[in-house]
Design a protein that fits this description.
It is a single chain. The protein has 123 residues and is α+β, with helices and mostly antiparallel strands. It has one domain: GTP cyclohydrolase I, C-terminal domain/NADPH-dependent 7-cyano-7-deazaguanine reductase, N-terminal domain (GTP Cyclohydrolase I, domain 2, 2-Layer Sandwich), CATH 3.30.1130.10. The chain has four helices and four strands; from the N terminus they run βαβαααββ. A four-stranded antiparallel β-sheet has the order 1-2-3-4. The radius of gyration is 16 Å and the shape is elongated.
Length: 123
């Protein structure tokens, strides 16, 4: 068997946070959804069934949750902080695709959410 690519997925993480430009958004807060695709080589874990051969999902979630608790005016800024943190804390991660959506945003539109998506590679 030849492994071509391995990625860890965390889909639909629901986190309450206080991001927004309007003072009301930071006072009241809102629900956000985070999706992550983390490219990392976990081929050793495929064979050994050992956690040290992959990235711990629960630890990734805790890092994302901690960064989401720091208010930002812009989702772009919050997303950038999350990416920097994951690269810092998890050296095995080679690239990150992150989607950050504010559910029911206060912009006068009938929509499920508004947000950002970024893809970054480790230098």
């Amino acid at each position: 068997m030849r492994i071509q690519n391995t990625s860890i997925l965390l889909q639909g993480l629901r986190i309450y946070a206080r991001h927004g430009v309007d003072p009301q958004e930071t006072a009241v807060g809102a629900m956000f959804t985070v999706d992550l695709k983390l490219e990392t080589d976990f081929s050793r874990a495929l064979e050994t069934d050992e956690l040290d051969g992959t990235v711990n999902y629960a630890s990734v979630y805790e890092a994302v949750k901690e960064e989401m608790q720091i208010p930002s005016r812009l989702l772009e800024h919050a997303g950038g902080r999350i990416a920097y943190r994951l690269f810092r804390d998890f050296p095995a991660i080679q690239s990150i695709r992150l989607k950050l959506i504010k559910q029911n945003p206060p912009m006068g539109a009938d929509c499920d959410g508004a947000g950002i998506e970024i893809t970054v590679r480790r230098e």
